[in-house]
Specification:
Blueprint lengths: L13 H10 L22 E3 L10 H7 L8 E4 L4 E3 L2 H4 L3 E2 L12 E2 L5 E4 L2 E4 L2 E3 L10 H7 L2 E3 L7 E4 H14 L3 H12 L11 H19 L40 H4 L4 E8 L4 E2 L20 H9 L15 H6 L6 E3 L1 E7 L5 E9 L5 H11 L7 E6 L2 H4 L3 H5 L9 E5 L2 H4 L4 H7 L14 H9 L3 H4 L4 H22 L9 H30 L1 H16 L17 H18 L9 H21 L6 H28 L4 H9 L3 H4 L14 H7 L2 H39 L3 H36 L4 H4 L13 H19 L8 E4 L2 E2 L14 H51 L7 H42 L1 E2 L2 E2 L11
Parallel strand pairs: 4-8, 6-10, 11-16, 16-17
Antiparallel strand pairs: 1-2, 2-3, 5-8, 6-7, 9-10, 11-14, 12-13, 14-15, 18-19, 20-21
Helix pairs in contact: 5-7, 7-18, 19-20, 19-30, 19-31, 19-32, 21-22, 21-27, 22-23, 22-27, 22-28, 27-28, 31-32
């Protein structure tokens, strides 16, 4: 069996492996007393743990051999075992600015306690400065740099780190989110795992060097070393890695893009996603004055000064409130802000590719306030000159209101054409009017943009939250800037060749072509069927939807179904008017209570009884028992008032009530179970004998409205439950927040059950009053298995169900149910049942279904066009960057530098230019086939009787 598990196959021979380890504790194959194999003279007593082979050498030969490897660990045989013998103790000295093994004629020794941090530990070394003509003009820090060592200070350093050490830590912190403390402690253990000879503490110096390394490397990659103004001349956001697929005027947009017709102008629209992250907190550590950011404002974090001036104008602004109870305030309230400088960060990225926008991240001081999110959004788009903008935000329905008014009070501006949408996952937790207005599925030119790219971006940086939480403000900004830069670079390479996101755009385009064909055929079949029967109606529908897409402002949303059913509030208003009219016409000073008020009072008591039956807990404590008794007393008091009115409206029922209640103790012990004896509680024969017709008709009207309200409440509670459950998994950490979140989940579950029971009660009562009929198509039986929220899979299932239902309706067959496409799962009826009402209601439903089919077809075709255009932009951007680096090397921007530095500038610019040119060639090669398929597909599609061209302006990127 072990041969099936290669990792375990060596276990039977573990003694041999143990022997191999122990063998190396001795002199092994070099245990003879022969002299050093290099010089053949001196005794061989030294070996190196980092060199291959563990060969024994003499002291002199070992020192000479390690002139090129001065940071290896050597050991000396003391006659019994090998003990640590650093190279410096054997006589090795590191000569700066000279070839390994050579000595300077005018050397100057550094401090005796000089320490170097390397990938294998912390070394005490002996260093000599160069004082000859090779480096007379070089400062000591420069001599270290030219020897591959990063000094901890600029004047008389006594600590340095190798370039490989700093680079290794940077990659480990970016990929594995390793903290600087843990990395340094690992170096200490590698130096001496026993703890008997702890090396000098250089943690603070290491953190300083690592931070400087991050900053200088970022500046190097941004080309600041080639600019005469150097790092001091770095512009705002200039060091950010920008998205090559997003529109960048004067870089990757074709000539004439700004005059493209409306049918194609959306191809050159910038789509961004906005969100807040409450995982990336910051404690009150240090201050901005003591710990300023080295690069704050040059990459992703906004500049401190301008941001603080903006926030000073809104000191008293409260956090935002959303249209749904799941709003972002819940996230802020679940997490304590005591002792925090920042409760989280707000961020903006490109919605389609997940690249963090330059100057697109800022700290949040008090939850998700308008002033914070406005600034970070406006800052992130300040560098672009695109004509139109599409913004995705999970609370866009609230945030977008009055945005232009708020912008007027800032130094920023936004494009004239701007639209807002709510991400696809979050949209189903919003109210229906928000779903109609802000759904990405219905947004013209959005393609298949889900708007959730910012959520995926947070997953890249959240791993750094524990370590950055304890940093000062400047160090935290620098670290998160580096994390965001790494995330953007990974996404850039992932557009084509990253194994994790392998061939991202190519795979997306392949799927888009397949889906476009599928949904296009469904839409074409639907449209042709309608044309043959109602061509004039179809023409009117096309005009409606096209006018709304061109300019939705001030127009009624065509996807929104008119309110055709009365709600309880509507019925209550109608009854109140009737009662007012009756009181005005009454001759008596006091009129008896109206029928409507009487029945509404009964429904309120029924709702209180239901709530108590579902929410009642065991009275294990005095407080719980008191609350339960108070609730029962309130219900009992309400029932007695109701009984007094009931004697007036239902006089023949009073004897039945007295007889029933005298035989039961429920009237005092469990008032939540007392029967109210409304008309719906009797059989048809009993109602005819005991109840007035007006009473029966009024209750039927109230029950029908109650069913509509309760069913909508069920949907809302299920949407809310789905979102909260997903949000808890992604965002809540720690015992206290988890406990609060679970309490919230329990309350939502109670709300779902209460809404479902309310619907069932209204439906049963209405069925008893009105009997069976067409209303049952709209209001079906609600079972427990129907109480299922909608996740991503469910959303897709709804789309498939709607398509199938529409196709069967067009063919003359109304389906009895809608399948999800999965053999073991069906979509609950409450998510797709619209009813067969009278007076043109089915025509309204059919029109909305046609709008949806059209939107699905258009969004997928738009996705093909967007991806085709994005591929072109990526290639053009890479070519432009290659040419930019070539010009930096050829123009010799810094003429005052030494020949050696000039050569380095030329070499780096050529290296970068070659890399981006290779990216461009790789993209073209990888996308050639799928782009040809997209062109063929688009040419086969018709728009206004003409073939659908790939792009507005023909640009040959190859």
């Amino acid at each position: 069996m072990l041969q099936d598990f290669p990792l375990l196959s060596w276990i039977p021979h573990r003694d041999e492996y143990l022997d191999g380890l122990l063998l190396l504790e001795g002199r092994g194959q070099y245990e003879s007393d022969s002299p050093c194999r290099t010089c053949k003279e001196r005794p061989a007593t030294i070996r190196c743990r980092d060199c291959a082979g563990f060969e024994l050498l003499c002291v002199e030969c070992s020192v000479a051999l390690h002139a090129r490897c001065p940071f290896h660990w050597t050991e000396a045989w003391n006659g019994t075992f090998f003990e640590r013998a650093p190279l410096s103790s054997l006589g090795l000295r590191i000569q700066l600015c000279h070839a390994p093994g050579m000595r300077c004629g005018s050397l100057s020794p550094a401090r005796d306690d000089f320490v170097v941090l390397h990938t294998n530990g912390i070394h005490k070394v002996k260093v000599d400065y160069c004082g000859c003509g090779l480096s007379t003009s070089l400062e000591r820090r420069q001599q270290f740099m030219r020897s591959g060592l990063w000094p901890a200070t600029v004047v008389d350093p006594q600590t340095a780190a190798t370039f490989s050490c700093l680079d290794t830590f940077q990659q480990l912190s970016l990929q594995g989110k390793l903290s600087g403390y843990d990395f340094y402690k690992s170096l200490e253990i590698l130096t001496d795992g026993s703890g008997l000879n702890i090396p000098p503490d250089r943690l603070t110096a290491f953190m300083t060097m690592a931070r400087e390394w991050r900053h200088i490397k970022m500046m190097k990659r941004a080309g600041r070393g080639h600019d005469p103004t150097g790092i001091a001349g770095t512009g705002a956001g200039e060091c950010a890695v920008t998205c090559p697929a997003c529109p960048i005027p004067e870089v990757n947009l074709p000539e004439g893009w700004d005059t493209a017709p409306p049918s194609r102008s959306w191809l050159y629209r910038l789509i961004v996603a906005v969100d807040a992250n409450f995982r990336l907190k910051s404690r009150l550590r240090s201050s901005s004055a003591k710990d300023p950011g080295l690069g704050t404002g040059t990459a992703y974090f906004v500049g401190d000064a301008e941001y603080e001036r903006h926030l000073d104008k809104f000191k008293d602004e409260d956090v935002m409130s959303g249209c749904s109870r799941f709003s972002a305030v819940s996230a802020a309230n679940l997490k304590s802000s005591k002792g925090l400088r920042a409760t989280g960060v707000g961020g903006v990225c490109c919605a389609r590719h997940g690249f963090w926008r330059p100057l697109g991240i800022a700290d949040l001081q008090k939850g998700e306030r308008y002033c914070n999110m406005d600034f970070v959004f406006l800052s992130s788009i300040s560098s672009t000159t695109v004509k139109s903008l599409l913004v995705s935000y999970d609370i866009a329905c609230q945030w977008s209101k009055n945005l232009k008014t708020r912008v007027a009070n800032t130094s920023f501006s936004i494009p004239e054409w701007i639209r807002f949408m709510v991400p696809k996952f979050h949209i189903f937790a919003h109210k229906e009017e928000c779903q109609d207005e802000y759904s990405p599925h219905k947004e013209y030119g959005a393609g298949q943009t889900d708007g959730e790219g910012v959520e995926r971006g947070w997953s890249d940086v959240n791993g750094a939250a524990p370590s950055t939480k304890e940093m000062g403000p400047g160090g935290r900004h620098d670290t998160l800037d580096d994390q965001c830069g790494q995330s953007n670079w990974r996404r850039f390479t992932g557009l084509c060749m990253c194994s994790i996101c392998a061939l991202l755009l190519r795979r997306r385009l392949q799927v888009a072509i397949e889906k476009s064909e599928e949904h296009g055929d469904i839409y074409a079949e639907f449209t042709e069927s309608l044309k043959s029967e109602h061509p004039e109606v179809l023409h009117e529908w096309e005009g409606t939807i096209e006018a709304w897409e061109a300019d939705p402002a001030g127009k009624e949303n065509p996807y929104r179904k008119p309110e055709t059913e009365l709600t309880v509030s509507d019925v209550r208003l109608e009854l109140a008017r009737d009662e007012h009219a009756a009181l005005s016409a009454a001759n008596d000073h006091v009129a008896e209570p109206a029928v409507g008020s009487f029945l509404l009072q009964g429904l309120r008591i029924e709702s209180m009884q239901l709530k108590l039956r579902l929410d009642r807990q065991s009275d294990t404590t005095a407080n719980q028992a008191t609350l339960l008794q108070d609730a029962r007393t309130s219900i009992l008091r309400q029932i007695r008032r109701f009984r007094a009115d009931q004697e007036l409206h239902m006089p023949f029922v009073a004897p039945l009530i007295d007889a029933a209640e005298s035989a039961s103790s429920l009237s005092t012990e469990q008032p939540e179970r007392i029967k109210l004896y409304l008309p719906s509680d009797f059989t048809a024969a009993q109602r005819e004998e005991l109840c007035l017709p007006a009473l029966i008709a009024t209750e039927a009207k109230l029950r029908h409205a109650g069913m509509s309200d309760a069913l909508e409440d069920v949907r809302h509670q299920l949407r809310f439950r789905t979102y909260v459950n997903t949000w808890k998994v992604k965002n809540v950490r720690g015992q206290r927040p988890n406990t609060r979140a679970r309490d919230m989940q329990a309350r939502i579950e109670d709300s779902v059950k209460r809404a479902a029971e309310t619907y069932r009660r209204h439906r049963a009562a209405y069925q008893g009053l009105s009997g069976n009929g067409a209303w049952q198509t709209r209001f079906q039986e609600l079972k427990d298995e129907h109480l299922v929220g909608l996740g991503e899979r469910m959303i897709n299932a709804i789309d498939l169900a709607d398509e199938q239902r529409v196709r069967e309706y067009v063919r003359g067959r109304h389906p009895g149910g809608a399948a999800s496409g999965e053999s073991s799962h069906t979509v609950p009826w409450l998510w797709y049942a619209h009813g067969q009402g009278e007076g043109g209601e089915m025509e309204i439903d059919l029109k909305i279904e046609w709008f949806k089919a059209r939107a699905r077809s258009r969004r997928w075709i738009e996705e093909v066009l967007l991806l085709y255009e994005e591929m072109r932009r990526v290639v053009v951007t890479c070519t432009w960057r290659s040419e930019q680096w070539t010009s930096r090397g050829a123009s010799g921007l810094r003429g005052d530098v030494s020949p050696h530095l000039h050569e380095g500038l030329m070499a780096y610019s050529c290296k970068q230019a070659t890399m981006f040119r290779a990216f461009s060639e790789q993209f073209v090669s990888s996308w050639q086939i799928v782009r040809a398929a997209a062109e063929t597909f688009l040419q086969s599609r018709q728009e206004d009787g003409r073939p659908l061209a790939p792009v507005h302006i023909n640009v040959d990127v190859e």
